[in-house]
């Protein structure tokens, strides 16, 4: 999701009124299309000054967007200006009152009276922003808007009136409060509830609060001044759940400080193609890594009383050709083995309150329309009881704009309402045609009521009607605690732990701080890239590698700097200067990679981030030429890859002495990188994505399935350059004493000893992999099941313990039933993903080359697990939300493994209602509700599932 914030939001420039103006604080800030420095004079209480527009300015459309000091119902403006008549003013102005500055809606219809001081009147409209647009060439002579104030009026709601609203009684059950409120809401109010307005806009007259939100994948990204942490791909590279929980707690503290309630974060997409620009927002290519790191983020953030919105649901991370949202046509098996896994994990374990739907397809149906995905799997299987947020524009995409499943916006709205998509980031639910359809019966009221109920229930359940901490964000305030020394240290530690050492030939690293001359070269050397979804930067907030090097070395060390080239241009004129600097140096540090930065940076060609997919994976622009030219100078070169994705480092792996990946490391990245460069921190990051030898190998990920023929190309081997989970250290480790045991409940205990055999302290990421040797279906060559990052002193040994549940050993068999099959499992514990021989009998070859890499053993597992479902009917009742009769079915699992299934209802042989899903744990039962749209007295009703059916005469 992304809105184009750069022109409006990040352009905000706070213009406080004079202290003597405190009683007339109508506006908190403003942004103007021209003469920005003077716009504050239009609300400073001084009619001698103002926002002036010259004749040349007025030849073009001009505008000013005000942020109201107090959101509310606005029904008028007072404008003080000379040289205009009421008639000219009326013809020249378009006025918007809106809660969401990115979705202005329709302009107000207004009247104008007065002279010099004009009264502009219109029906009351609730908003937090006011925009005035001056039409092109509508005013001929120069004009100054000396003072602009607003009038509050219309349907203002006071505390006394709200006391009489029964749904505001906090002692009532949530469902009752929802029903009471739905019964008094008009169709237009229900559409207003679902309109996204920088979160949930709220309806003050009904006491429905607004709930603001932020993007926060690596820091509070609205406004300016919050701490900037490593981008998500770097957080994934830490393989440290406890650290990520701490990072999220810190972001949560800064969110609370900004009076914000919800984050549209984290990204739980499993990234399977390095060309995809949004790899940087993910935690990597493995569903378990994404689940555990994403779950840790959610746990930390929610611990502050905040709501999360995991995204993008679902299958967003495997786009065709790496092109964003180009669907590849994934099967049910692939979805459930890979792409649904992280979402299921966090919904069931952390009870997330909302989730964002993706632009992708689910079995050919756009996600924003998919009832199977958003109701069947999300709600019925996983028990999700929150609300669904649309990715921006996803509902509108159902029309001819993208997907062609809806002929017009009303049909698109009906399709998404049927799937239960609540908060509409985009321009569909607030479209006048859709609102009119809601009023005249053109929308399905059952679907509208259900969808509204999901949002209202979440708000009631979280106490937001009773105590709402949300306040309008002042985009120019640095809130208490933002970027504090303690928070900077968390950011620095996260950056340190994310850095992956890929090569260290001749122990070139760590460098000596007493080195005589060091050349720091590359477009990223003094231009640290923080990644997409970064707030407007404060001056000096980002610490570059060059700054870190200069601070780290002594005064006797000469630091030479040459950019060499830009990130993406093809200007080679400065390469010779970089080569000259390299020849003078004892060692060269090159910082190359992606350009991915704050949206506030205009005129920048980005190579990573949303809507910036990259085809070749060769270092962009002339960076590859720069690398080759500098390496040819003959001095030891240490490459620092500052990127949001894997790149083709084949040349670097052959010609550079050292390679570090610091990803997009956040504001403290320069210090963190030099901590590693000079040995103040021992690197222990591990690759969250496979690094290919060439883009032609893509998609390439470690947990592939066996081939029916061969693996290699004629002109290229199958193997990656650097495998998933790989990373070096300044110390060495050894694995030993791998033991396994099977418990009575079928779980498996796995223990191994890891020893620091080197001379310095360091972290090791201990990774547990399992290979299912033979099964009823084709399984993956190996799969990550768990991991643990541990710190070891020189010579220290630790026993690392894991427990594998039967569910972790399970597979989807040839009938798509989840089962655990008896047989042989290879258990592997090591510091990277295991190696293999890409040929026949590939699973037999899965192993670690030496005990330095890891150890493995074969486990014979003689237990079997499977679900066993039975169906019974319950008593008919009336659903209070949609007012229809419900016939419940109880599904019981008398087996010994959690599984999913579906139930269909037939009345006198004809299918009735939708197919409904369930997931049931062993020994538990779940109610599946069917809507009765007809009288079933005297009729035969049959319920069928995959392995069982029942028939009952009513």
Automatic annotation (TrEMBL):
Entry-linked SMART domains: Fn3_like (SM01217)
Pfam families: Fn3-like, Glyco_hydro_3, Glyco_hydro_3_C
Entry keyword annotation includes Oxidoreductase: no
UniProt entry keywords in alphabetical sequence: Hydrolase, Signal
Superkingdom field: Bacteria
InterPro entries: BXL, Fn3-like, GH, Glyco_hydro_3_C, Glyco_hydro_3_C_sf, Glyco_hydro_3_N, Glyco_hydro_3_N_sf, Ig-like_fold
Molecular function GO labels: hydrolase activity
Membership in a protein family: Belongs to the glycosyl hydrolase 3 family.
UniProt xrefs under PANTHER family: BETA-D-XYLOSIDASE 5-RELATED, SUGAR HYDROLASE-RELATED
Name of the protein described by the UniProt record: Glycoside hydrolase family 3 C-terminal domain-containing protein
Organism: Pinibacter soli
């Amino acid at each position: 999701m992304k809105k184009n914030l750069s022109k409006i939001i990040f352009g905000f420039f706070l213009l406080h009124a004079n202290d003597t103006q405190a009683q007339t604080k109508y506006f908190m800030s403003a942004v103007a299309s021209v003469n920005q420095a003077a716009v504050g004079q239009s609300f400073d209480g001084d009619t001698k000054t103002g926002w002036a527009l010259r004749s040349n300015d007025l030849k073009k459309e001009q505008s000013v967007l005000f942020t109201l000091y107090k959101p509310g119902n606005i029904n008028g403006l007072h404008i003080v200006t000379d040289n205009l008549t009421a008639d000219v003013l009326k013809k020249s102005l378009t006025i918007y009152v809106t809660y969401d500055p990115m979705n202005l809606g329709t302009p107000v219809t207004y009247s104008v009276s007065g002279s010099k001081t004009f009264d502009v009147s219109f029906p009351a409209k609730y908003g937090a922003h006011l925009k005035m647009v001056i039409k092109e060439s509508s005013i001929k002579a120069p004009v100054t808007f000396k003072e602009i104030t607003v009038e509050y009026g219309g349907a203002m709601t006071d505390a006394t009136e709200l006391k009489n609203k029964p749904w505001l009684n906090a002692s009532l059950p949530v469902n009752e409060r929802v029903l009471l409120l739905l019964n008094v809401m008009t169709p237009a109010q229900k559409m207003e509830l679902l309109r996204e307005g920088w979160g949930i806009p709220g309806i003050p007259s009904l006491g429905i609060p607004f709930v603001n939100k932020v993007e926060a994948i690596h820091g509070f990204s609205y406004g300016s001044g919050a701490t900037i942490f490593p981008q998500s791909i770097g957080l994934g590279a830490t393989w440290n759940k406890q650290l990520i929980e701490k990072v999220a707690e810190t972001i949560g503290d800064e969110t609370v400080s900004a009076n914000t309630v919800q984050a549209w974060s984290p990204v739980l997409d499993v990234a399977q193609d390095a060309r995809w620009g949004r790899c940087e927002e993910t935690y990597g290519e493995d569903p378990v890594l994404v689940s555990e790191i994403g779950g840790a983020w959610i746990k930390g953030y929610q611990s502050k009383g905040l709501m999360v919105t995991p995204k993008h649901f679902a299958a967003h991370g495997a786009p065709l050709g790496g092109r964003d949202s180009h669907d590849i046509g994934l099967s049910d098996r692939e979805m459930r083995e890979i792409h649904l896994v992280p979402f299921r994990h966090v919904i069931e374990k952390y009870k997330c309150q909302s989730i964002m739907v993706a632009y992708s397809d689910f079995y050919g149906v756009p996600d924003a329309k998919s009832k199977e995905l958003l109701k069947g799997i999300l709600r019925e299987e996983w028990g999700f009881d929150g609300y669904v947020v649309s990715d921006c524009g996803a509902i509108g995409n159902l029309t001819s704009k993208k997907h062609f499943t809806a002929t017009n916006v009303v049909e698109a709205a009906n399709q998404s309402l049927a799937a239960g998509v609540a908060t509409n980031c985009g321009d569909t639910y607030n479209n006048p045609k859709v609102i009119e359809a809601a009023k005249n019966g053109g929308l399905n009221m059952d679907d509208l009521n259900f969808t509204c109920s999901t949002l209202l229930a979440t708000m009631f359940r979280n106490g937001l009607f009773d105590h709402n901490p949300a306040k309008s964000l002042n985009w120019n305030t640095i809130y208490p605690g933002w970027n504090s020394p303690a928070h900077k240290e968390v950011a620095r530690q996260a950056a340190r732990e994310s850095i992956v050492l890929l090569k260290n030939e001749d122990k070139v690293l760590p460098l000596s701080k007493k080195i005589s001359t060091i050349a720091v070269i590359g477009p990223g050397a003094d231009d640290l890239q923080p990644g997409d979804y970064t707030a407007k930067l404060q001056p000096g907030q980002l610490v570059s590698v060059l700054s870190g090097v200069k601070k780290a070395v002594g005064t006797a060390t000469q630091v030479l700097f040459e950019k060499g080239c830009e990130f993406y241009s093809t200007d080679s004129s400065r390469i010779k200067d970089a080569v000259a600097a390299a020849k003078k140096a004892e060692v060269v540090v090159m910082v190359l990679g992606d350009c991915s930065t704050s949206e506030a940076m205009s005129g920048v060609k980005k190579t990573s981030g949303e809507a910036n997919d990259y085809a070749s994976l060769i270092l962009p622009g002339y960076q590859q030429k720069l690398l080759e030219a500098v390496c040819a100078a003959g001095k030891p070169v240490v490459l620092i890859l500052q990127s949001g994705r894997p790149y083709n480092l084949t040349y670097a792996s052959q010609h550079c002495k050292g390679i570090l990946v610091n990803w997009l490391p956040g504001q403290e990245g320069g210090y963190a990188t030099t901590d590693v460069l000079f040995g103040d921190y021992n690197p222990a990051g591990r690759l969250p994505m496979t690094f290919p030898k060439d883009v032609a190998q893509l998609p390439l990920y470690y947990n592939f399935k066996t081939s029916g023929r061969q693996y290699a190309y004629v002109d290229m081997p199958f193997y990656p350059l650097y495998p998933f989970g790989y990373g070096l250290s300044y110390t060495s480790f050894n694995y030993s004493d791998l033991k396994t045991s099977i418990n009575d409940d079928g779980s498996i205990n796995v223990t191994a000893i890891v020893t620091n055999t080197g001379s310095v302290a360091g972290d090791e990421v201990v990774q547990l992999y399992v290979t299912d040797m033979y099964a009823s279906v084709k399984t993956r060559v190996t799969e990550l099941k768990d991991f643990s990052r541990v710190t070891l002193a020189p010579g220290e040994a630790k026993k690392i313990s894991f427990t594998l549940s039967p569910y972790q050993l399970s597979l989807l068999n040839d009938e798509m039933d989840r089962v655990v099959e008896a047989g042989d499992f290879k258990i592997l514990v090591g510091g990277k993903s295991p190696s293999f021989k890409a040929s026949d009998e590939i699973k037999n070859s899965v192993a670690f080359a030496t005990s330095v890499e890891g150890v493995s053993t074969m486990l014979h597992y003689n237990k079997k697990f499977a679900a066993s479902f039975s169906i019974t009917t319950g008593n008919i009742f009336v659903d209070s939300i949609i007012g229809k009769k419900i016939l419940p079915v109880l599904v019981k699992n008398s087996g010994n493994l959690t599984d999913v299934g579906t139930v269909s209802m037939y009345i006198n042989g004809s299918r009735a209602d939708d197919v409904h899903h369930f997931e049931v744990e062993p020994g538990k039962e779940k109610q599946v509700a069917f809507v009765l749209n007809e009288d079933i007295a005297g009729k035969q009703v049959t319920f069928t599932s995959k392995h069982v059916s029942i028939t009952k005469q009513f």
